[in-house]
Each structure stands twice: as structure tokens, then as C-alpha cells.
Amino acid sequence: MYRYLANLLPKGISGKFKEILVFSGIKVHPDNFIGFIFIFGLSLSLVLAFNLKVIFQQNFIFMFIIIFLLIEVGVYTLLILNVDKKSKFIESILPDALQLMASNLRAGMTTDRALLLSARPEFGPFKDELNIAGKEITTGKEISHALKDITKRVKSDILERTIELIVSGLRSGGELASLLEQNSEDLRNEALVDKKIRSSVQMYVIFIFAAIGFGAPILYGLSSILVDVISQNLGMLEIPAQVKATIPISITGISVSSSFITKYIIISLITSSLLGSLVLGLINKGKEKEGVKYIPILLIVSITIFFVMRYVLMLVFGGLLGI
Which range, 20-34, 108-122, 295-309, is most confident? Predict the structure, then answer.
């Protein structure tokens, strides 16, 4: 049933999911996974949309569509983050793995044997990839093809570039052990440069986080109280008849309600948190999707500070200002 449902989805969407599942290393048939997520999303969306309609009198169809899209996008985002986590880990241990392979080759081992013995448990998912490549070479597959097949299961530009350099060196007659050692040294130097760059942009990350998480909600809390004060007291002002005759100005109450202002502020905080998180990911890691992990933190912090600030101001100045 799951595979049948997966075939009903557009090829572009199912193809993206299948590609991400291969890179994530999940040992489940892609069609079964896609079908399960589709059924799970539909069921959960129906339940939540029905509860929102009964409790909060929300539009059922609108809430069902929104919740379903959020669930599917959320699952896809989690898969992407899992792929990136796997790639980052492999990139971090890649210099050590290359150095170990080079040592095995210099000890007189064959290429397939050197790959298999380099598959240490501490290498995590890269251990499985080395085992697969080593077994393929043992069964007669060309070493360049076996290495390139690793890039079809691991989404990493650094790994792909490293394997391309190794394959090019092998085709030109270079010594594999020397190539591996040189690549290992280059990757370590690249990691050091990357750490220096990240440390230099931390101030920008802190500033953006503080502005969105603390500065904006505090200012919004003050402005919301100001709107309440103006709406309560402006309409009570009386202008003398002599002044009205000379100055064609009339002062009336503000028609904008406090609930509208609060909804507008919450929407603004949500939008700022979403876009700000993507900017943080781009600045800190070089990829917008790396900022997805900041979204729930910024949302919780900013909205909580807004309501706390509003409550404190109401508590302190409510009686004094007559609101």
C-alpha cells in the first residue's frame, strides 16, 4: 500500500525524497518510507485540524492544508539535517582515515586490504562506506569506480573533491600512499582556516541573535503598551471650540484594536525568527539550512520575552496610565 501511494505522488517530490534517503543511509525502501510519511501526515493533519475547528473555531480545510504541508516539510528538513550531520562527521574524520590508508599502503598491503583495515569503528558511517568499497575492489571492481560510488551515498563536496583528486592521481600514475598523505594534510589545513573564519564572524552571529531574540520583542512590548495608552486616552481629549474654529483638526479614538497589534507583533516576530535563523546559518556555516536549528530557539525566546515585557509593563504602569 505504501509503495502504491508513493507512486501517486509527483515524480519530482518522490525523487527528492528518494535522493535524500539514499544520502541519509536509512535502511528502508524509499517507497515504503514516502508512503508512510504521506499516510502519517494525512492522519495527524486531520486530527489536529478537527481539534482546532472544535476548540478554536478555525477553518478546517485551511488548517488541514497548513498542518499537512508543515509536517511534510518538517520531515524533509529533518532528513536534510541528518544528511548534513553525516556529511560533517565524515569530513571531520576524513584526514585521519586517509592517513591510516596511506600507512597501510606503505606497510605493503594491497589497496583493497588497506581500505578494509582502515574501516575503524570510530569512523562511524564512513566505516560502512570503506567496507563497501573494499569489498567491491576485492571482487574485481576498478578502484576509481569503487571510490566514486562512495560519493553517490555521501553528500559531501569535500569528499567528492578528495576522491576526484585521488582518482586523477591514480590515472596519471601517481603513488597512492603519497596522494592520500598529501590530501590528508591539505584537509587539516583547510579545517584550520575554516575555524579561524568562523571565530571571526561570531560577533555578527551574537549581534543578530540578540537583536531578534531580545531587542525586537522588548521594543514591541513597549510599543504595544504605548498603543494601549494612546487608544485609551486620546479619545478623551476635548479641544475647546475656539481652537477647533481656528485649527481644522479633530482628535478621535484609535480604531486599531489591541488584539490586532498583538497579532501583528507575533507574526513579525515569527517572520524575523525564520529569516534571521537562515541568515545565522549562512553566516556561521555557509549554508542557510544550517540555521534551521535556531528557529525554535529564536521563536520561543522572542515570543516569551515579548509577553513577559508586556506583562511587566502592564503590572507596573497599568494603574498609573489607566490601561
Answer: 295-309
